[in-house]
Amino acid sequence: MRCRSEEWAFDSAYPLFSYAGPMRELLSAYKKGRRRSLAPFFAELLAKAIDGRWPSRTIVPVPPRPGKLRKMGWDQVEELVRILEARGFPVARPLERRLSSEQKSLGKGDRGNNARMAYSMKAQASSPELPLILDDVVTTCATIDACARALRAGGALSVAALVIAAD
């Protein structure tokens, strides 16, 4: 609700669930507990939402922090995107994330500035005309907004976002 009064670079953001109770525990097991076996479950839920709401959009995953793959051994968003891509959903990866502070360690005001400096288009990349940003959790909308700004700068006409849960 707190995001509704702001002006954003994206046109819509849709969470499948509230980030509370059992869903918070399930997502935590997936992300922090590295329960990769949950990826097909989440991918199926995302696939149904995409088919129902955005069948003509190209999925654009939020890129991980530099070094995350080395440190964690995987990226939970990319894992979902690979499953969706294997099912035939169009995917593009035009975004990159530069070294920056971890969003969850910052307050609401600092998250926007940090995200705007962190996300950009890769060199020589362009955005799909109708991208669908995919992320796992949204809290302040700073990451989605920064990604949407980069995609619009890269040629996107309309940007939507889909997340598993909203805090």
Can you describe this structure?
With 167 residues, this protein is an alpha/beta fold. Helices cover 39% and strands 19% of the residues. It has helices at 21-31, 39-53, 68-72, 76-86, 108-118, 142-153; strands spanning 12-18, 58-61, 95-97, 119-121, 131-138, 160-166. A four-stranded parallel β-sheet has the order 1-6-5-2, sandwiched between helices. It has a two-stranded antiparallel sheet with strand order 3-4. Strand 5 (131-138), helix 6 (142-153) and strand 6 (160-166) form a beta-alpha-beta unit. 34% of the residues are buried. The mean pLDDT is 89.
| Major sheet strand order | 1-6-5-2
User: Which range does the strand content fall in?
Assistant: 15-25%
Task: Quote the average pLDDT.
Answer: 89
CATH fold naming: Rossmann fold
Can you tell me the CATH architecture?
A: 3-Layer(aba) Sandwich
Order of helices and strands: EHHEHHEHEEHE
Low-confidence runs: none
SS-based class? alpha/beta
Radius of gyration: 15 Å
Separation, N- and C-terminal Cα atoms = 10 Å
How many domains, in number, for the residues? Answer: 1
Main sheet record: 4 strands, parallel
Proportion of helical residues: 25-40%
Q: Give the class-level CATH name.
A: Alpha Beta
| Tally of strands | 6
Global shape? globular
Number of helices: 6
